[in-house]
Write a structure and sequence with these properties.
Shape: globular
Distance between the termini: 55 Å
Largest sheet: 2 strands, antiparallel
Order of helices and strands: HEEHHHHHHHHHHHHH
Strand order of the largest sheet: 1-2
Number of domains: 1
CATH class: Mainly Alpha
CATH superfamily: MFS general substrate transporter like domains
Oligomer: single chain
Strand content: under 5%
Number of helices: 14
Helix content: over 70%
Number of strands: 2
């Protein structure tokens, strides 16, 4: 018996779309934000080194991971339009979403073998974990106007991020228990410190399994895609042509173009903060000992995730009352204040307070940015191309943000200076957002 296709705006389809956040957000939390940065720092501390020779030159641990992240986003910015062009003409964007979901999940599992001795293999798995997460997430974003009507998009976007935070908290809580009490799970390998590191490696495996397993619910209900009419012509490079067409079309969509420029600037800072926050806390905060560091950092990330659920819904409520742009301006101002506060962080309590602040504004700015862009789109069935443009802009911003953050940290020897640098991008974002309502 054929499966009934869920209709646009239906509860079943909306939930399936939002549920992909539940599936893949565990990568964002466990790998990108929480356990991997601690694991990465522990490897260098155990080896009693701060620099490692990679590709014939010595580089410090923080810039190394920052540059690898930048390179991954360069790759993402290049490949996303290619996929967009093929998916639009073949009408099979779900196939690509599945491929990159599996690529990311398998790469997470591969991080189990990350070590300083196998640094190249480890960096490759880290690299493709980023690629799998962000490309599949970009494709899922492009489904938003396909599955939800305009008046549903703010709420379902917030629901997606909230599901992601909730699912991440559940898995991270389990992984935290495993890391702090490895013997309870039969993880024993010499000293307790070595067992803890092994538990962290196993947590990477749990992320890959969780991601692939729960994504099947979304894949079951999401439509295959909308095939373009006409004969396909040069579909490989067509994605870049579509980006050019979108850019040309933006000349007639003044509000959308102004919003995209503002988004490009402030998103550069948002994503960089999310990617480096734990590395900052691991290196700059005085935790006392390794166990306190592990517990404190993961505890901080849990605080961020829990409060982010509240933040996403509060932002959705505020946007309904005061408008999307006005709400985004206020959220960016809060980010500026947080950057200033972060510069003076020293103690764990300082970091916990900062984490609570980040949680409040992180979920809100992500969910509202996505739904605002979707609302500003012109009437079109070519949602993949428009969201491809959105995601390429975001990824280029991340490349600039993470590279400059790593460069400033390497030159100055302090990550604190880089935080103030990011605050300037939020300030520029506020100024640019004030122009979105203007007609010229």
């Amino acid at each position: 018996m054929a499966r009934t296709i869920a209709l646009k705006g239906s509860k079943k389809l909306l939930n399936a779309w939002a549920f992909y956040d539940w599936a893949n957000s565990v990568y964002s939390l466990v790998i990108a934000s929480a356990i991997f940065p601690i694991f990465y720092g522990a490897l260098f501390r155990a080896a009693e080194i701060e620099k490692i020779t990679v590709f014939g030159s010595e580089i410090a641990r923080a810039p190394l991971i920052s540059y690898t992240t930048s390179l991954a986003f360069v790759f993402i910015a290049i490949i996303t339009p290619l996929i967009s062009g093929i998916a639009d003409y073949m009408g099979n964007k779900k196939v690509f979403m599945q491929f990159f979901c599996y690529l990311g999940g398998i790469s997470c599992i591969g991080l189990y073998w990350f070590s300083l001795e196998n640094i190249y293999l480890g960096l490759i798995c880290y690299f493709f974990g980023i690629v799998g997460f962000w490309v599949s997430f970009a494709i899922n974003n492009s489904y938003l106007p396909d599955v939800a009507f305009a008046d549903q998009q703010d709420k379902i976007s917030a629901k997606g991020f909230s599901l992601g935070y909730l699912g991440s908290i559940i898995l991270l809580g389990f992984n935290l228990w495993m890391v702090l009490e490895p013997s309870l799970f039969g993880i024993t390998d010499g000293s307790n410190e070595i067992a803890t590191v092994k538990a962290m490696k196993i947590s990477f495996v749990t992320v890959g399994i969780w991601w692939i397993l729960f994504a099947q619910f979304s894949f079951y209900y999401l439509p295959k895609g909308i095939k373009k009419e006409g004969k396909p012509n040069n579909i490989i490079l067509n994605g870049f042509k579509e980006l050019k067409q979108v850019w040309n079309q933006l000349g007639h969509e003044v509000r959308l173009k102004k919003y995209l420029i503002a988004f490009f600037v402030y998103s550069m800072a948002v994503q960089t903060v999310m990617l480096i926050a734990t590395y900052f806390g691991e290196e700059e905060i005085d935790w006392g000992d390794s166990e306190a560091r592990t517990l404190g950092l993961i505890g901080s990330i849990l605080i961020i995730q829990i409060i982010a659920i509240l933040g996403a819904y509060l932002t959705a409520i505020a946007s309904k009352k005061y408008g999307n742009i006005n709400t985004l301006i206020c959220v960016n101002i809060l980010w500026i204040l947080l950057c200033i506060y972060a510069y003076f962080m020293i103690t764990p309590i300082d970091f916990y307070i900062g984490a609570a602040g980040v949680g409040l504004v992180m979920g809100g700015i992500q969910a509202l940015s996505r739904s605002t862009y979707s609302k500003f789109l012109p009437d079109t069935t070519d949602t993949t191309s428009f969201f491809s443009f959105y995601d390429v802009a975001e990824k280029i911003g991340i490349v600039i943000g993470t590279f400059m953050y790593g460069y400033i940290a390497q030159v100055t020897g302090s990550m604190r200076t880089s935080i103030i640098f990011l605050g300037l991008f939020f300030l520029a974002g506020v100024l640019l957002l004030t122009r979105v309502h203007k007609k010229t």
